[in-house]
Design goal:
single chain; 141 residues; alpha+beta; Immunoglobulin-like; four-stranded antiparallel β-sheet; 1 helix; 36% strand
Length: 141
């Protein structure tokens, strides 16, 4: 009877150890994957990724692939058309971290690219918004 119980316990322990190692390996493989989806830029198109938004600022990442390495001007304007930033680039992979200040005097920002290469010329409007989420907490007395 003791041998039967020991054999059964041995099988249970081996099965549990095998199951534990498989689950541990599976969880370590999923943990190594990034939590955000990978961000892939398309050629000649601006891709904007929001990094952080707070009550004071908006942090963006602006990406663009420029396979021909054409010269272009990246610019930022406020809603009145006042140019806040402008710089010429001729890089193959454009990656710019951009900080926009939130202000009561600025309703929106216009970011874009000017270039002789018409494939690169494009504009985007960035409008800061505030959203409120209504929620209820129920507690037992």
């Amino acid at each position: 009877m003791k041998k039967t119980i020991l054999k059964f316990m041995g099988k249970v322990v081996v099965t549990a150890a095998l199951l534990f190692s498989v689950l541990t390996r599976a969880s370590s493989q999923t943990a190594s994957k990034p939590t955000n989806t990978e961000y892939i830029a398309e050629p000649n198109k601006i891709n904007i990724r929001t990094r952080e938004v707070s009550s004071e600022k908006i942090l963006l990442n602006v990406l663009m692939l420029n396979p021909e390495e054409s010269t272009f001007t990246f610019f930022v304007m406020d809603h009145n058309g006042l140019e806040l930033f402008s710089h010429d680039y001729n890089v193959k992979e454009f990656n710019l971290p951009l900080t926009l200040e939130r202000s009561e005097t600025v309703d929106s920002y216009k970011i874009g690219v000017r270039s002789k290469n018409k494939k690169l010329a494009q504009n985007y409007i960035i409008t800061p918004t505030v959203r409120y989420i209504a929620d209820v907490v129920v507690k037992k007395q």
